[in-house]
Write a structure and sequence with these properties.
2 copies of one chain form a homodimer. Chain A contains 24 helices and 21 strands. Chain A has 673 residues and is α/β, with parallel strands linked by helices. Chain A folds into 3 domains: 301 residues, Thiamin diphosphate (ThDP)-binding fold, Pyr/PP domains (Rossmann fold, 3-Layer(aba) Sandwich), CATH 3.40.50.970; 175 residues, Rossmann fold; 130 residues, Rossmann fold, CATH 3.40.50.920. Chain A has a 7-stranded parallel β-sheet with strand order 10-11-9-12-13-15-14, sandwiched between helices. A 5-stranded parallel β-sheet of chain A has the order 1-2-3-7-6, with helices on both faces. The longest helix of chain A has 29 residues. Chain A is elongated. Chains A and B meet through helix 6, helix 7, helix 8, helix 14 and helix 16 of A and helix 6, helix 7, helix 8, helix 14 and helix 16 of B.
């Protein structure tokens, strides 16, 4: 497309408006990152005005293109675009950039009603989210699209920086995206040659084009300030159906700043009064007022509103026709978008059997039991499906151009975390991912973001303790539970047996308000006789009395989770025989327990009973909340070791004798020390 | 080199001995990974018998080549080699594979006296460790080598698997190794086309050769069972001085097993009786006894002992001549290898000044103060040196072919963690790395391994709370402290002011028994008047009474760390005025505090005083150990927000009023609730 002189001028004005709104907002906040929006405004302009299909007046329109600002520090670029194109983000909000209670946080925070598709900032995460979004687009399309009715048909665009590409999670996700041939994924790489410590030459001299070609991406190179080149590259990328696209755009950080352009000084600090002035002069921008939007610029950008309305209306019409032709599918569509599980979905849930069973084995039965009714249940494993039990039998693979339901994340836990987030964004899907608990460390930054965004991701973390056995300390989690439990909004559940595991799974599948981590044993565990002991349904309360004393006086409380509940119950038998008034509390989830009323919590753990022992084959950190200073813990205060699991439990003191001894010691009785 | 028929036969016997020792050990343990040693034995044989310069009778010989088995699940490959070449690892130990107390753990565990150079198993870690080892080799060579005296001159060989290369940490480390041009690094990539879930085709279809070429590695391809090809490739790799080498070796997992070769069934389970028999038949191996070593094979491998003695003696002679010529350097060499810091090193430590100072700012003064005396102090940042204060001024960069002291890890926290471990292995260096505390999540798996190996790595984690301010919740650590504190053997220190920060740094530099994480504030903090209050030297005890009550009765204890100590002290002033007997405990390090005798701990926190408030702008998980069930916490129970730091502290209740209120509430006084 060739522009006339006046059109070119208008284009420059539009691009400079993005730049200067960003500069002024950072300046007013005296905090933020001006360099990225200044450098990449032309790319954003071309993408948002010529390609992005969106409706500013309905950011939740299903079939919109997604935009991911993986380089989240450039948040003002996004806020500028949202304001200019007509989203519910006023200029006053932009003036409140980075202030308490504003909608313009330092880094973009997931706001589906505002057009912010995902929370970014920690580098590499947005890159992986976009891959997950593309998986979601393809998977939903596979389920719902019918000839003539492409009701799911959108692109995922992203802007990624040097820092994004340096992060390992991006490498993992890029490799997987190439394997999957995600043609709807189009990333602009903001190649500005500058990182915080200076020129990227000091650490990042790889050939990015060659690297992404090795992942089987389509790669193009453009001048990031040449709108025509950018447009042509985006056009070509949209036409590439079987490979993700990377457009390497050479840009200048801090574009327009006479003294800071192309330096790290433009990255993370306000330009300053003087440099702001010089920059405005250089770009022929009025020095006053700040937050200036030239005549005509807003109209130009706001065309997005009309376009968006038309596009959404067209889509609605299409959907109406679709609903007439495929009423069952349309009904299912509406249900999944309301987050409703279909009636009778629980019919597929398994019953616990009598014989001992590893809690990890429950997973396969649950997933395969409910999969026929829950078409939106899709996930996989970081190359540990056989060990974690997460394979959906008979549903095929989601690989290459196949659209089955089993994702193979490979040995890429971090990308799995980021991709699951992308799959969960926008609802509809119930994504899950599995690995050993120890490797939750590899994906921790993504788990945290799932919790922050309240995404309904299900993590299946098996091999949950020294019960791992021979694989040794590198594979035996110690501190992982404490770390996960400390994440606000992550529900961590470590079931004691198959009956608790089933209830935990039910809760996880129904929960839409945030991620759930299911912590499962490698080793077989007895099944608690629920006729004799309290119901496993109590798991939803987080903690409950599973075995109580028949005596008048309760003297001692044993609190345990997972495998160690059985140890506690065996000790309960011995202690009861010896005349101790003892209770066992199964405490599968601290956060669920803390969500109960104090009255209930005090029933389970009466304040008057201070003789308490917490038993868990993991770090003791956090358990004193329940045992207090006067109580005791039987936990792992060191790394594990390589030996058969039974030997390890014995060697590390997870024995009835030891529990009895600790309990008696608290009561000051003989047999304690 | 061309072999005669009988030599070829002997070679095959040697290779099959490695295979069958591995098969038998896994079979006896009924646990382990036979497929990798079976598949990669020829590679190992060629490397260990023709290239690796080592002395089995002195695994600590400084100038040995290093061997890293990044694919740590193939541990029996390494144990077989160690036994066969004459290390202190008996056949009986191999028969004790994966048993309690044996030297043959499930995954290799760092044992410098046994020839195990690093702990591996979690994939990708060994890959990064090797990069760190190569950094160490080059850096020490730069300091100590002199014309005619290459006393530091060794290669780092590694064996890496599909899984290693899928992990993001390997991508990060490979990119950095290419940038650094680490010619001494030679990796064999075990390209067997199989991962746990099946063919790598399901998830790993990238072009590895192209990818590593993009990182600027030298790449070759060989048949992993063709000893001549392997030898030639290793020869060429050794000659490549300015690029790391990747030799892509096509191998067959479970080589020799009629029914399991080239299947994931050979990966992680014993072959089983019948398949073991069939394999031995196929490889013309005696069925009995297990652990068979044919005549002549041991002699062949054990030539390493004589060779090793000669090589070490030659090197010793070289070193003697070197010491005669360069006595000062030789003396320094001996000192650093004994882990001694030079006399007077502390002279460069800064003094705290009166004016408020961020604890992060102390770092730059310490590092630059001691750097002239501590030549082995080397480190860098994951692209945050300006913010974390870790740049050594005037010492140049360690990049490309420059050998300065500032590493630029790029936005690659995980590789930084793994590389720091590799730099620390074998002692001599004092490596440090810095990033924001929030990004410790990205490198957590490497931190854990540093703790497990007891490596003297120093982590500098700044921007330690909501004090981050405007960058918002994605950048504000909440759960990170709890997670780090739960790692056995990691010393976590969060100093309250510049005076504590200086003591913490001194401790970190002197500590050789394990890693230290220094948790530093972004924001300025007042400096506690140590004339009036207790000495900062008390930091080494982990917790101490910084401000006490003058009253007869101690009623209330405020426990805090870092910035929140000042809040506690302000509340102390108010409460004291109001007649409350209150004490402030500064508790910079839980693990140091737990290392004190109970007598001391009880002096600081008298058991009789149960009214206690813990104050820390982080997750409360773990604090009840000190405040008990009856105490209270003022912590962060949610994610943070984007706003100026002062606003956040106010909004989240970190105010004197709130502390006073909480304290009084515990005492049942008016003003509490």
């Amino acid at each position: 497309m060739t522009l006339k002189g006046s059109e070119r001028e208008r284009e420059d004005q539009c691009i400079n408006t993005i730049r200067m709104l960003s500069v002024d907002a950072v300046e007013k906040a005296q905090s933020g990152h001006p360099g990225m929006p200044m450098g990449d405004a032309a790319l954003a302009y071309v993408l948002w005005t010529r390609f992005l299909r969106h409706n500013p007046k309905n950011p939740r329109w299903f079939n919109r293109d997604r935009f991911v600002l993986s380089a989240g520090h450039g948040s003002m670029l996004l806020y500028s675009l949202l304001h200019l194109t007509g989203y519910d983000l006023s200029l006053d909000e932009i003036k409140q950039f980075r202030q308490w209670g504003s909608r313009t946080a330092g880094h973009p925070e997931y706001s589906p009603d505002l057009g912010i598709e995902t929370t970014t900032g920690p580098l590499g995460q947005g890159f992986a989210n976009g891959v997950g979004m593309a998986v979601r687009e393809r998977y939903l399309g596979q389920i719902y699209n019918r000839p003539g009715f492409s009701i799911v048909d959108y692109y995922i665009y992203g802007m990624v920086s040097d820092g994004d590409l340096m992060e390992g999670i991006a490498s993992e996700a890029a490799s997987m995206a190439g394997n999957l041939g995600l043609g709807k994924l189009v990333y602009l790489y903001l190649d500005n040659g500058i990182s915080i410590e200076g020129s990227t030459d000091i650490t990042f001299t790889e050939d990015v084009a060659q690297r992404f070609a090795s992942y089987k991406w389509d790669v193009q190179k453009v001048d990031g300030n040449d709108c025509d080149q950018i447009g042509k590259a985006l056009e070509k990328a949209r036409g590439e159906k079987t490979r993700p696209s990377l457009i390497i755009a050479r840009t200048s950080i801090g574009f327009g700043s006479p003294n800071k352009q192309d330096t790290s000084g433009a990255h993370g600090s306000p330009l300053g009064d003087e440099e702001t002035k010089l920059t405005k002069e250089r770009l022929k921008w009025p020095l006053e007022p700040p937050f200036h939007i030239p005549d005509g610029v807003l109209e130009m950008f706001r065309r997005a509103v009309d376009h968006g309305r038309v596009m959404e209306n067209d889509w609605k019409q299409l959907f109406e026709n679709y609903a007439a032709r495929h009423p069952g599918l349309a009904e299912s569509w509406r249900a999944i978008h309301e987050g409703k599980l279909p009636d009778g979905w629980k019919e597929g849930m398994p019953e616990a059997e009598d014989q001992p069973m590893a809690t990890r084995s429950v997973t396969g039965r649950v997933l395969n039991g409910v999969a026929p009714k829950l078409a939106t249940l899709i996930g996989g494993s970081a190359d540990l499906a056989p060990s974690t039990g997460t394979h959906l039998e008979g549903y095929g693979d989601f690989i290459h151009d196949e659209n089955g339901r089993n994702l193979h994340f490979g040995v890429r836990e971090h990308a799995m975390g980021g991709i699951l987030n992308g799959m969960a964004l926008g609802g509809a899907l119930i994504p899950y991912g599995s690995t050993f608990l120890i490797f939750s460390d590899y994906m921790k930054p993504s788990i945290r973001l799932a919790a922050m965004m309240k995404l309904p991701v299900i993590y299946i973390f098996t091999h949950d303790s020294i019960g791992v056995g021979e694989d040794g300390p590198t594979h035996q989690p110690i501190e992982q539970l404490a770390g996960l439990r400390a994440i606000p909004g992550l529900t961590v559940i470590r079931p004691a047996d198959a009956t608790e595991a089933i209830v935990a799974w039910e809760l996880a599948l129904e929960r839409r308000e945030g991620p759930v981590a299911l912590i499962m044993s490698r080793q077989k565990l007895p099944v608690i006789d629920r006729q004799r002991y309290a119901s496993a349904a109590n798991l939803t309360k987080g903690g409950y009395v599973v075995a109580d004393t028949a005596r008048d006086t309760l003297e001692l409380i044993l609190i345990a989770t997972g495998a160690e509940v059985h140890l506690a119950m065996d000790a309960h038998t011995t202690l009861t025989k010896e005349g101790v008034g003892v209770r066992v509390v199964s405490m599968p989830s601290w956060d669920l327990f803390e969500g109960q009323e104090k009255g209930y919590r005090d029933t389970v753990l009466p304040p008057s009973v201070t003789a308490r022992v917490a038993i868990e084959a993991a770090s003791p950190v956090g358990w004193h909340r329940y045992v207090g200073i006067e109580g005791d813990t039987l936990c792992m205060e060191r790394f594990g070791a390589s030996a058969p699991a039974a030997v390890l439990f014995e060697q590390f003191g997870f024995t009835v004798d030891n529990v009895v001894k600790k309990g008696k010691a608290l009561l000051g009785r003989r047999g304690g020390d």
